[in-house]
């Protein structure tokens, strides 16, 4: 018996709603005046969002709004409403079909708070970058106000906040497990992942008079029901993946319903302790995948037992492949929250359709000349793909977009570049990025559709690149060449994070990238140097970075250019010891890197690393009460210490580092030689400032260089404010994907 990806109805295969006669709007309306100009008496669907409305395919409200418009519906936008009353939620009138509610392009808590739980001073998705334009837990607040504004109107919940909080989840800000967002919001249905298929089907079915309460068969949705319906077979997750003895490993490509194949795998003997385990599905005469639901431990159980929480997180992540995922259900008091399998990925034709809709590509005119930082960052960039098969445990891309890459065609991408060139104000000939979640997963996929549909591995590139993964970069190389040959395009840069362990499999790609598409700096994310944290992150060893660095420098030299790698690192990730951070700091110093900024691990809802953080266990392997604990960094002092190691060169961190090194028995690293990490005495920081003012001559600068050298052990060219292009520029924030 072979497994294949289930079929899905194409997005453009629906009959258009009657309001198609109005045609596309220049912008989806945000006021009654705009509706009047369009000749509308009402909206069919109103999208409420926590972001400023930018009519660009990098913004969720624009994609969903334009897609529904293309289906013939009249779509209005309520952007960043005043949530203290229902007034703003009534300004477009009552929607005929439903409210679509989303917190925005980011989880509202991550948007508002730093990893240290401090309120951010800005918001990139707001005009002027102003903070405070959306509430905490925006999805919940917006849903409540929609209910107050118009009782009885269905609420469809979506966006990344809904995706990552669809199940009982650990909430970093309250340091507790919260119930499914669906119950907090009292929405009628929740859409997770890229929701184009689901939202179109819901809109079409409501428009035909079907009750949203009856829509229990749509993939990529969650909803409340009282009991498992007749005809379904229910499996207890703790029976198929017992929090007990570690089972023998099953080949992730084996069909686990094939008992003969399972018997062969079991005969191979016990699994190594480090192997990634899979959820086994035991044969049963009544069992059919599309009529099987896995019951996770209830909200009340995972709230009170962190081991069961880690177990539930593990099962959830192993049921994410659209080709073989089963439905999940989790009890919350007297209600079941039911999760249908993930949506079927969009085909290339559908991706072209979605990205080819009539976007204005600029912010709504209501914002005037106010800058929206998130838009300024992406206005000259092009998203060429979706998804990520890296599976990094700290990242939410795979959980939201899936691990099967969804690609656009060359023609679609080239048309968008031409639109940017011809329509977007301020274009100077430079495309700032051709990328997406990663720079170089475009058109990369499993060699076998059958294996892809059956696989349960959480990553295609960890602990090494899967032998079934096609790492051919030729289509991406061809795209780069076409893009830079376009008239009016002077330069095409690659700014998305590069998956360097994939890139080294294609020297031709690395040469093409380095020769033509690096603007002086290239971001990559080794994240760490030590095996402990890297294994918990599911990231490659530092040897992959070294190999890529050699290729980068070789091709840079051949091109006659001066270009540098910008490595990104994470502090305080689960699995990281103080010694790991010390070794990373020594590596940074040895290689002449000084981090300008530091990214501390941020426990986002539903991420595997967050389950590690909460439970102290590793859900990548069988979770048991007796399984080895994962080192967790939670205390404020230890988190500050781990960040301080990344900025070992900053005198403000030296007192903390000295104390820590002495406690660790590594006082030998305190001193003024190049081999030591930090100096033995503390400089007067104010003295530096006055010295800089007094020594503005070249000779004075040399004096300051000598003083800094005494304190850091680095040569003058690698201290202070390094000249542009200097080797010692590393960062730890602004996460590149992968």
From TrEMBL:
Residues 688-738 are annotated as: Disordered. Its cofactor is [4Fe-4S] cluster. One of its GO terms (molecular function) is catalytic activity. InterPro entries: Elp3/MiaA/NifB-like_rSAM (IPR006638), Methylthiotransferase_CS (IPR020612), rSAM (IPR007197), rSAM_horseshoe (IPR023404), rSAM_sf (IPR058240), UPF0313 (IPR022946), UPF0313_C (IPR024560), UPF0313_N (IPR013704). Keywords: 4Fe-4S, Iron, Iron-sulfur, Metal-binding, S-adenosyl-L-methionine. PANTHER family: UPF0313 PROTEIN YGIQ. This is Radical SAM core domain-containing protein.
């Amino acid at each position: 018996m072979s497994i294949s990806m289930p079929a899905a109805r194409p997005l453009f295969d629906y009959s258009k709603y009657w309001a198609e006669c109005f045609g596309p709007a220049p912008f989806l309306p945000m006021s009654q005046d705009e509706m009047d100009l369009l000749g509308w008496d009402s909206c069919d669907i109103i999208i409420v969002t926590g972001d400023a409305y930018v009519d660009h395919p990098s913004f969720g409200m624009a994609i969903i709004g334009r897609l529904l418009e293309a289906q013939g519906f009249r779509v209005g936008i309520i952007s960043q409403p005043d949530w203290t009353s229902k007034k703003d939620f009534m300004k477009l009138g009552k929607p005929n079909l439903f409210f679509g509610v989303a917190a925005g392009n980011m989880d509202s808590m991550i948007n508002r708070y730093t990893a240290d739980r401090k309120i951010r001073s800005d918001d990139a998705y707001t005009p002027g970058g102003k903070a405070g334009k959306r509430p905490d837990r925006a999805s919940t607040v917006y849903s409540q106000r929609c209910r107050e504004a118009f009782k009885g109107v269905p609420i469809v919940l979506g966006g990344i906040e809904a995706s990552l909080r669809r199940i009982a989840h650990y909430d970093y800000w309250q340091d507790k497990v919260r119930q499914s967002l669906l119950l907090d919001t009292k929405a009628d249905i929740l859409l997770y992942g890229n929701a184009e298929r689901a939202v179109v089907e819901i809109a079409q079915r409501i428009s035909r008079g079907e009750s949203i309460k009856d829509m229990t068969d749509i993939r990529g949705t969650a909803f409340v029901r009282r009991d498992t319906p007749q005809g379904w077979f229910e499996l207890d997750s703790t029976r198929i993946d017992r929090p007990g003895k570690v089972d023998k490993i099953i080949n992730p490509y084996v069909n686990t319903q094939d008992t003969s194949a399972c018997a062969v795998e079991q005969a191979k003997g016990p699994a190594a302790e480090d192997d990634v385990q899979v959820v086994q599905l035991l044969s049963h005469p009544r069992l059919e995948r599309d009529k099987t639901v896995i019951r996770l431990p209830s909200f009340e159980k995972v709230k009170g037992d962190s081991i069961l929480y880690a177990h539930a997180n593990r099962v959830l992540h192993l049921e994410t492949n659209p080709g073989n995922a089963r439905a999940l259900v989790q009890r919350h008091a007297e209600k079941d929250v039911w999760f249908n399998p993930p949506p079927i990925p969009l085909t290339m034709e559908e991706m072209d359709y979605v990205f080819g809709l009539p976007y204005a590509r600029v912010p709504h005119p209501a914002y005037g000349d106010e800058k929206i930082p998130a838009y300024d960052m992406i206005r000259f960039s092009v998203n060429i793909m979706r998804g990520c098969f890296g599976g990094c445990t700290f990242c939410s891309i795979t959980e939201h977009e899936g691990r099967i890459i969804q690609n656009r065609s060359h023609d679609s991408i080239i048309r968008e570049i031409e639109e940017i060139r011809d329509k977007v104000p301020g274009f100077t000939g430079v495309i700032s990025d051709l990328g997406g979640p990663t720079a170089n997963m475009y058109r990369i996929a499993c060699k076998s559709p059958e294996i892809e549909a059956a696989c349960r591995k959480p990553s295609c590139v960890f602990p090494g690149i899967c032998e079934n993964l096609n790492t051919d970069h030729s289509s991406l190389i061809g795209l780069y060449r076409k893009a830079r040959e376009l008239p009016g395009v002077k330069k095409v840069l690659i700014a998305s994070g590069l998956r360097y362990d994939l890139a080294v499999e294609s020297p031709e790609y690395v040469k093409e990238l380095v020769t033509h598409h690096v603007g002086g700096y290239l971001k990559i994310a080794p994240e760490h140097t030590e095996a402990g944290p890297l294994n918990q992150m599911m990231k490659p060893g530092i040897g992959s970075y070294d190999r890529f660095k050699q290729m980068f420098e070789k091709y840079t030299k051949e091109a006659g250019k001066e270009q540098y790698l910008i490595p990104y690192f994470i502090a305080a990730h689960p699995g990281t010891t103080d010694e790991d951070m010390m070794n990373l700091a020594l590596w940074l110093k040895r290689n002449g890197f000084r981090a300008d900024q530091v990214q501390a691990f941020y426990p986002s809802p539903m991420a595997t690393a967050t389950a590690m953080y909460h439970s102290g266990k590793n859900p990548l392997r069988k979770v048991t009460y007796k399984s080895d604990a994962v080192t967790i960094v939670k205390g404020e002092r230890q988190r500050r210490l781990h960040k301080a190691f990344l900025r070992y060169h900053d005198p403000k961190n030296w007192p903390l580092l000295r104390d820590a090194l002495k406690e660790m028995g590594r006082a030998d690293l305190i001193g003024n030689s190049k081999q030591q990490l930090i100096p033995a005495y503390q400089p007067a920081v104010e003295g530096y400032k006055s010295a800089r003012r007094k020594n503005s001559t070249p000779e004075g600068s040399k004096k300051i260089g000598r003083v800094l050298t005494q304190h850091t052990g680095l040569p003058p060219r690698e201290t202070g404010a390094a000249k542009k292009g200097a080797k010692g520029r590393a960062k730890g924030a602004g996460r590149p994907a992968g």
